[in-house]
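Reminder to self: tokens first, then the designed residues, so the page reads top to bottom the way the pipeline ran.
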């Protein structure tokens, strides 16, 4: 079992036990049907919120939306709607968007959007998604 899945299973168990221990009133202990209903509801809620891939997708979506809120970035993507766009770090701490048509957009290292782009890059590299064999130091940015 990989560490992410193991962590999710552990979190589910911990949450399940804490909810079962704190949410049952003394009168409900005698009635097994109420306990099983609460147990089942708790399990269903935990599975949805603890899925690591869903959490990663949500975080990725938030970071991409933040980047696309920048007028320069939005304009760049509007000009490159039908092209593949990649995001990569640069040696000076800045990041750049590269389009398959050769256009690029550099986000300076001191800009807040650069820090969001770096967060997205780190997330993608750590979790091995949106990687491309054509550009090993970049991630595919699908808006």
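Designed residues (143 positions):
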């Amino acid at each position: 079992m990989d560490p992410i899945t193991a962590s999710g299973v552990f979190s589910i168990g911990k949450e399940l036990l804490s909810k079962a221990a704190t949410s049952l009133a003394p009168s409900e202990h005698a009635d097994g049907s109420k306990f099983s209903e609460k147990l089942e509801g708790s399990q269903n809620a935990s599975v949805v919120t603890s899925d690591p891939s869903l959490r990663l997708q949500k975080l990725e979506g938030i970071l991409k939306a933040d980047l696309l809120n920048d007028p320069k970035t939005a304009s760049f993507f509007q000009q490159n709607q039908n092209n593949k766009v990649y995001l990569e770090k640069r040696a000076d701490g800045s990041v750049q968007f590269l389009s398959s048509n050769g256009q690029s957009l550099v986000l300076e290292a001191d800009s807040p959007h650069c820090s969001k782009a770096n967060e997205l890059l780190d997330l993608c590299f750590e979790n091995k998604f949106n990687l491309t064999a054509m550009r090993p130091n970049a991630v595919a940015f699908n808006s």
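Residues 43-49 have pLDDT under 50 and may be disordered.
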